[in-house]
Amino acid sequence: MSTQNSLVLLNRVFSLKDGFPFVLVVDSLLQSSYHLIQEFVHNCNNDIVYLSFETVNKPSYATHFIDCMDVTAGEIVKQVKQLSTTKPESSPLLTRKTLIIVDSLNYVGLEDLTTFVSSLISPTSIVLGVFHGDFKSSSTKNPNFPSHMTLLTYIASSILDVEPYHTSEIDEEEIDMEISRLKTPIIKALHSSMFKITLTNRRKSGRALTSRFIINSVNHTYEAFKETEAKISAEDESLLKDLTTFNLTTNTKQKLAKDQVDLPFMQAQEELGSYSGAIIYEFEKDDDYDEEDPYEDPF
Amino acid sequence: MTSIQEQDLVLFKDNSIVSDKLLSSSSSHLSIIAYTEGTQPTWFVNSLIENSLVGTACLVNKDLTKQTPKRSQVIYISFSNLLEFYTKACKKNGVDLSRESNFHFIDCFTDLFTKHITNPENASSQTSKLFSFIIKQLSMVPGVNKIVFIENPEILLTATSISSVELSNSLVKLNRLCRNLFVISCHTSPQIVDIHSKEAYDPNFKTSDFLVKLHQRAHLNIYLEPLTTGRAKDITGILTVSKGPLPFESSIIIDEKSYTYNVTKESNIKLYFR
């Protein structure tokens, strides 16, 4: 997919224009989904229903705030449905889709998860669910039951994976070590308003498209993320300069000549390639060929 | 180490420990004080109590000299210590907690398993009652500038049948009633924190799940750990102040820093930049 097309797609996801009934946001202790949610809110002119499992303060943008602590999944769905039925019929909000933000799907029981999400989805609403991907919870009843993450990624129409955007070199192994001890290292890029996302979008045909972006939630600008190639290539001859008094480098003419040299046995390999790795013994004129097999069973 | 200049402890960019902006904010915040065995945060917590009550922090910040009596209401909930422990410890900070009317102590240690939770194997309703009692006590404290400390609540997860979600929900309810909730918790890894733990029957599974959930909604993280290079005579440990996943209001900026600190035999604190 071209960069331009992927940016158009991202804008459509943010503005809830396409038919993505369930958008899953996966965040971590390195980069929270807070700024990404703000981006959805910035692009949204619709009603926002906020389902709070862990949020302490009611967000200013939430039209309705439902406290989901100590409430069963079924009761939450009932409360959300009640909100949609209490809308006045003449309201233009009926024609626009309501955004339902679930602050954390980690709190919904594994057995209720798919029913909960699918019950919230309706022709007039879009579900934006956050899942914290750090801790892999397991099913207590059935060890073979799929995890939260497996179920959610299976039913989501779009998945947004949030990561920090590092502009300088970092030791990822060390950061992972610290995070595994629940220690947040002091790195400017963590939980920053500028971050990286991986968008996996599932078309109706079943084809999934993946693109990566850098999001700046302060100026609301998005750009496609380009993977930077390894800076030091194997043939970087500038590294060999001024190391010794000998000439270790090659010029263009020498390089061209080097490339044209046929390596030994190349021809032989081409010929034998058709036998797919079989050992083929080619007899020479002085070879003694014996019809009898010395290892044959005499009886 | 004596040649290196001592530093003052600050948590926010306005050179404060418990910022005025935090106390005047209309929102509630969560801060986590994580420690490992061998780096008990008592000295740090005492300074936070002192700063919240009167505005000074005589052991860790020499610039904070201006006393503001009754700066905030401090409510301390402990699952691992008695009031006497803090009354005695805070005397070094020049604060007499027994005479401080703005200090309220809720003892969840003395009668925890004899009075409050008598049936640990089916503890959901009794734990819920305990937290309702705490919330009632908290609501009775006058004023809105409330700073709440809760020490080692994770003990309930290892000692009773309650789930990590139940405890997490109880802390959210507490958090809503105060300007800032400091959760003091042991993070020894892998005994208590093991985020790779996958099996529900592992003893650290519930605590890891709870602590990860807690960290995901934190505004400020404070981590006290021993020196990674090994033991040193003049260094007790490393104190790291870092931001959490949720930001404070735009005017409250965390001063992210890492200090090495030394708690001397006389309980004096020396802090140095790392």
Automatic annotation (TrEMBL), chain A:
PANTHER family: ELONGATOR COMPLEX PROTEIN 5 (PTHR15641). This is Elongator complex protein 5. Belongs to the ELP5 family. It is found in: Cytoplasm; Nucleus. One of its GO terms (molecular function) is tRNA binding. InterPro entries: Elp5, P-loop_NTPase. It comes from the Eukaryota. Gene3D superfamilies: P-loop containing nucleotide triphosphate hydrolases. Keywords: Cytoplasm, Nucleus, tRNA processing. GO terms for biological process: tRNA wobble uridine modification. Pathway: tRNA modification; 5-methoxycarbonylmethyl-2-thiouridine-tRNA biosynthesis. One of its GO terms (cellular component) is nucleus.
TrEMBL record, chain B:
It comes from the Eukaryota. Coiled coil: none annotated. Pathway: tRNA modification; 5-methoxycarbonylmethyl-2-thiouridine-tRNA biosynthesis. Transmembrane segments: none annotated. One of its GO terms (cellular component) is elongator holoenzyme complex. InterPro entries: ELP6 (IPR018627), P-loop_NTPase (IPR027417). PANTHER family: ELONGATOR COMPLEX PROTEIN 6. This is Elongator complex protein 6. The lineage of its organism: Eukaryota, Fungi, Dikarya, Ascomycota, Saccharomycotina.
